[in-house]
TrEMBL record:
The lineage of its organism: Bacteria, Bacillati, Bacillota, Bacilli, Bacillales. Residues 2-67 form the Peptidase C39-like domain. This is C39 family peptidase. It comes from Paenibacillus gyeongsangnamensis. InterPro entries: Peptidase_C39-like (IPR039564). It comes from the Bacteria. Gene3D superfamilies: Cysteine proteinases.
Length: 113
């Protein structure tokens, strides 16, 4: 899903499929970047790169599960989150179909209550 428009990401949520999206640790626009050379290519990335699981939305917010903080269904300002997601390269992925229980254990190795 990387590079797809936001509406495609939201369409997955409407279908009930969570989406892994890249953001920053505080979900705000990155303010610290690191650049280095790899061969002839220059790589630039924020120092606060982070991925979360997008699980829902309403008119003003998105709801995420955050593996860094352990927060579930954490409410974040949608405009801020969307802008950060764009700056981060619109990186996202989801399962093509409902994951099996063994796939879920890869991401949630502990019982979810």
């Amino acid at each position: 899903m990387t590079g797809k428009p936001w509406r495609d990401v939201i369409a997955q949520i409407i279908k009930g499929k969570p989406v892994v999206v890249w953001t920053t640790g505080d979900y705000k626009q990155p303010d610290r970047w690191k650049t280095w050379k790899h061969g002839n290519e220059e790589i630039k990335t924020p120092l606060d790169l982070h991925a979360v699981v997008l699980i829902g939305f309403d008119p003003d917010h998105v709801y995420i599960d955050d593996p860094l903080t352990g927060k579930k269904a954490h409410r974040v300002n949608k405009k801020m989150f969307f802008r950060t997601w764009e700056i981060m390269g619109k990186q996202a992925l989801t399962f093509p179909s409902t994951p099996t229980s063994w796939q879920l254990r890869l991401y949630y190795p502990f019982p979810r209550f």
